[in-house]
Amino acid sequence: MIPPMTAWIRRLRWVAACLLGAAAALSAAAPLHEARPLMGTVVELSVEPAAGGETRAHAAIDAAYREMARLSDTMNHYDPQSVVSAINDAAGRRAVPVPPELMAVLAMAQAMSAKSDGAFDITIASLRGWRFRADDPRMPSAAAIAAQLPLVNWRNLRIDPRAQTAYLARRGMRIDLGGIAKLAIVHAGMQVLERHGIARALLNGGGDVEVIGGDAARPWRVGVRDPRAPERLLGVLRIARGFVVTSGDYERAFVRNGRRYHHILDPRSGYPASGPHGVTLTGERLEDLNGLGVAIMVRGKPDGVRWLTDNPRIEGLIVDADDSVWMTPGFRAGFRATP
Q: What CATH number labels 83-179?
């Protein structure tokens, strides 16, 4: 999931915009900032070291990036040496040993697939032929999609936590963790920072954000992109700790014969989802949020509203296909719209 350079630059600009409020919130404490390319995007850190602890804070930042890079290498299906590639290569033939961190992500993916009745499905990678690059788009034929669609079935990813193995039950199946691994990797980086004594930090993985150490007096301010006009912010969300995650139809897309095709595919049809333009969620539990934005993009606003209303641990915003904006009361309470 390495984007073209133009998309990489757009993401870099977006990260900078996203963090303007956070930097202002920390300016009195002389925070340390770092930005490095990772996971096909720019991963940015902003940490507030303890007094006199700048050297330890730099060591913590380096350790966090090392851990995130290690996990990214393990879960990157574009890397033929990764464990995910090994799972894909062995589809229909044998189970593959997986490390605990990958097993946790696979289990999270299966749980979200069950909760969303398959709207989120990492075996969507079994659909080959799509390429969502404006400068070099690719679109499979209707016949190719019809032939490959039976391979998309999250239930045919068999994970065995006791044996620590993963197995794709049919030849030709593939998994892609792009919709769920990034937030888990961001969280792993934050855990490293905390183990090194960092008490206040923001970690932004190209729009998937985790923060710690905020409070009512000094909350973190995270920019929320407007999916209808991605070059601008819809507003700013104030939170003390937890995650802010966004899914949208604007990041990777192309237009053909007057129709726009984006990268979030519907497992039921094999074509891009026709639901909302964008979804932003916030909460403190990784397993509540990870993959849910994609599921809402696929299933649509009515199911999204129901899922968010039924889970009081999650707050969210949905920009629907008709450009209307809906928010949970908790999200609205911390949100300030851009004038």
A: 1.10.3980.10
